[in-house]
Amino acid sequence: MPVIAVINQKGGSSKSTTAVHLIAWLHRQGAQCLLIDADGQRTSSIWLESLGQNIESKVIQDPDALLDALPKLADEYQWIVIDGPANLSEATRAAILWADLAAVPCQPTGVDLASAGDTVRLIKQAQKIRGGLPQAALFLARAVKGTRLKGEASEVLGAIPETRLLSTIIHQRQIVADAFGQGATVFSMTGSPAGIAAREYAELFKEMMELLKDA
Ligand SMILES: Nc1ncnc2c1ncn2[C@@H]1O[C@H](COP(=O)(O)OP(=O)(O)O)[C@@H](O)[C@H]1O
Ligand SMILES: [Mg+2]
Questions:
Q1: In this predicted model, what pLDDT tens digit does every residue of 108-152 receive, in sequence order?
Q2: What residue spans of 86-167 are helical by DSSP H?
Q3: Which ligand lies nearest the alpha carbon of 180?
């Protein structure tokens, strides 16, 4: 039933990586889930196919098709994760109009923080019409360990009203960058770097689940 849309107009902010890891994490818990790839680059649907885990995906980029399909699909699947495009197009709006949770990954740099602001503005428009939905969950992704920007970014994002800044920070890690090429997720990779990254993602996703539970 719940629909989670991973959105941010900025390319490279980690939307597809988050969407694929989230759907793989939900799938591991036995949930019947569907990934909707709304991005023309098709990163997440190609990635998902390469996992060989039979996790279902559909490519739907057309905003009208997305608006039409989502309510029916939301009835059919326990979880739907939408991987958003790298712009604030109508497809992004359509996703926000049906999502229970809008997850916004944001790199801790000035440019990225500004673009997250635009994304949040769009979410707030939907919240006004839909009586508070979707919930907005911002989180820092691709944060480089030991940099000062992280703290500053947390302050900026944490101060945005009607949105939640998740406390888990996803760090920039080689193992995560390698996952796509290896047809894997950090959940399916072995070794300690994969384990550390997997724990980070699991923490993040548990926070999202808590938000949905409280709704
Ligand atoms: N936590 C991370 N650590 C290292 N590299 C990452 C991480 N998250 C994403 N990347 C890399 O950053 C690039 C952009 O990520 P992607 O998920 O495709 O972003 P988007 O879908 O927002 O454009 C990809 O090369 C991906 O492998
Ligand atoms: Mg992408």
A1: 988 888 888 889 999 999 999 999 999 999 999 999 988 777 788
A2: 90-98, 110-129, 149-158
A3: 1
